[in-house]
Amino acid sequence: MSITANSQLSQVLSRNLESIVSNTDGSWANLGAELVYTQDWAGRFLSFYWQHLDSLCDPDSTSINTAQIIASLNQEDGFVPVDKSAYLQRVQRVMTTLVPERCQCWFIFRQYLYELELVITPVMPSLGNAATSVLVMGRLLQVTDKKHEVVAPLLINPSDLVLRSQQHQKIVNRITSNIRRTLDLDVIWQQTVDSLGEALQLDRCIICPYKPGTKSVKVIAEYHQPHINSMLGLEIDINSEFGFAQTLHTLKPTVFKSQHPYFHKQYLLTAVTCHQDQPNGIIAITLRDECKSLTAEELELAKEVADQLGTAIAHATLYKELLAARFEAEEATRRKSEFLANVSHEIRTPLNGIIGFLKLILDDMTDGVEEEREYLQESHKLSVHLFDIIQDILDFAKIEAGKTDLELGSVNLHELFVDVSNSMRLQAEQKNLSFQVQMPDTADQIMVYGDYLRLKQVMINLVGNAIKFTHEGGITLSADVVRKKTRFQDQEFPGLVKVRVADTGIGVSLDQQDKLFQSFSQVDGSRTRQYGGTGLGLAISQKLVEAMGGEVHFYSLGEGLGSTVTFTVPLYQQPVLS
C-alpha cells in the first residue's frame, strides 16, 4: 500500500520531484524494497509505503485515510526514531553533502519497537538549489510486537502461579534485606546479581549504572556460569539493544531477544532501576526459551526489585558523596591547622630575632657602633621577611574574599623582566647560583595585558621559590610568544606570552605534584621546617594569573631533577619578530 501526504506538497517539493513523491498507485512495491518513504529537512514524512503497513494501522479501523495516516506518523508520538536527534542529524547531513548513507535504526510506534535497515538518499535538486528531501529505502529486521519478540503475559495454572509468586517474593525480600544492610555501592550491585543468579539459576545477570543522556552503559557487576565468558567492564550501546532503549523509555520491564554477541540471541529481561522516577541503572538477566513468557505478576516483581535497588543506589550514592565531602572538609581543616602551626612558627622566628637584636641594642650590650649597626641591619632584614609573610596571608585572604583589586592595562615585558632580575639576582648570587634571563627575539617591545605589580609579585614569588629550593646550578627566567588568539573579559587578544621559570633544584615527585596548588599546603611538612614559607605562594600566584586571563602549570620529572613553572598572560599587541 502506498500513502502520500496530499497537503502543501507543492510548497515542499520542487516541480521535478512531484511525480516521484506523489506516487500513490503502489508502484513503489516494484522497487523491491519493503519500506520506501520520503522526508523533509525536519524529518516529517511526505510519502510512505510499507508492506507491513497494517501493523501501524488501528485494527478497528474499517478504512484507511492516507492523509490521516501520514498525520499520525508525523505526530510527536508517531512513527519516530528512538534516537531522534542522531537520526535527524544523519538525514540533514545527507541533504547537505548529497552523499547517501546506510544505517540500522530503531523506530518506536505506540507500544512497539521496529529495527530497520535503511539507505538514506538525497533527492537531487535542480542545479543551484539545495536538497529539501530524502528518499529512504529499507527493510524490517525485527519488531517487538505480540507476533514477534515481545512476549505477552502468560496464563498458567493458578496453583503454579501461587508457587512461582511465593518463590519470587522470597527473592525480592532477600535482596531487599541484603541491600539495606550496606551503603557500599559495589557490595549492593554484586549482592543483587549474585542473589538473582543463584536463586533463579541464571546463565547470566548483569547490572549497569546509567546516567541520563548517556548513549552507552558499562557492566559494573555480573553473575555468570563458569562456562560463559565474563562481560564485566564491557560497554553496551543502548541503541543497539532495543530492550535497553525500551525499558529506559517506558521505565517498565521488557522481555526481548538480544542481538549482542555475548548473549547469543538469548531472551533477556531488562528492568530499569529508578529513584523518584529518574533512572540510575539497568538490570539484565537471561531467560531460558521455555521461561520467556512471564506473568504480569512476575513482571511486577521485577519492577519491585528494580525500584528497591534504585532507591538503594540513590542512597548509597548520596552517602558516598557525603563521605567524599566530609573527607575533603577534614583534609581542608587538617591543612589549615598545619598551616596555622607553620605560620605561627614563621612569624615567631623573625619576630623573636627582631626583639632580641633590639633588646641587645637598648641594653647597651653591643661592642661598639659597628656591631650595633650590624644588629640593626639584621633586624631590618627580619622585619622585611616578616612583612612578606603577613603580606602573603593578607593577599590570600583578599583573593578568597573576591576583593582583589587589579589595574589591568598594557605592560612592557622587558621592563618587567629587568625589574624582577634586579630584585632577585643578588639573592641567587648569594647562594652561588646562576641567574639567566632570556627574552623572545623581536624587533620591537613585547606588550602584555595585565597588572604590572601583580605580574611582578607572581614572578618574584616563582623565582624566589626556585632559588629557595635550588642548591646548585641555577635559575632561568624566559618567555615565548604564542600566536594563538584568545578572549578575556569580552576582548580578543592576538596571542599569549608564556613566561617560564626553570631551576635545577630538588624537584617534586610525580605523585606529590597535585598538592602544590592546594591552599595552605606544601609537599610535606618537613620542607616547611627546612625551607620555611607559608605554603601559599603557588596558590596565590595561580589565582592572580587566572584573574588576569592566564594559566599556571608545574612540571618536574621527579625528585632531584629540577622544576619548571610556567604561566601565560594575554598579548596586548602583536610584536614584530626579528
How would you summarize the topology of this molecule?
Elements: E1 2-4, H1 9-12, H2 18-21, E2 35-40, E3 45-50, H3 66-73, E4 80-81, H4 84-97, E5 101-109, E6 112-122, E7 133-143, H5 158-179, H6 185-200, E8 204-209, E9 216-218, E10 221-224, E11 235-237, H7 242-250, E12 254-257, E13 267-275, E14 278-287, H8 296-362, H9 369-400, E15 409-412, H10 413-429, E16 434-438, E17 447-450, H11 452-468, E18 474-482, E19 486-488, E20 491-493, E21 496-503, H12 525-531, H13 537-547, E22 552-555, E23 563-570
Parallel strand pairs: 16-18
Antiparallel strand pairs: 1-3, 2-3, 2-7, 4-5, 5-6, 6-7, 8-10, 8-14, 9-11, 12-13, 13-14, 15-17, 18-21, 19-20, 21-23, 22-23
Question: What descriptive keywords fit this protein?
Answer:
about 575 residues, alpha+beta, Beta-Lactamase, 4 domains, seven-stranded antiparallel beta sheet, 13 helices, 23 strands
Give a verbal description of the structure:
This protein has a seven-stranded antiparallel beta sheet with strand order 1-3-2-7-6-5-4. Strands 10-8-14-13-12 form a five-stranded antiparallel beta sheet. Strands 16-18-21-23-22 form a five-stranded mixed beta sheet. Helix 8 packs antiparallel against helix 9 and helix 11 packs antiparallel against helix 13. With 578 residues, it is α+β, with helices and mostly antiparallel strands. 39% of the residues lie in helices and 23% in strands. The longest helix is centred in the middle third of the chain and has 67 residues. The protein is built from 13 helices and 23 strands. The N terminus is likely disordered. It is elongated, with a radius of gyration of 36 Å. The chain folds into four domains: 142 residues, Beta-Lactamase (2-Layer Sandwich); 166 residues, 2-Layer Sandwich (Beta-Lactamase), CATH 3.30.450.40; 72 residues, Helix Hairpins (Orthogonal Bundle); 167 residues, Heat Shock Protein 90. Strand 13 and strand 14 form a beta hairpin.
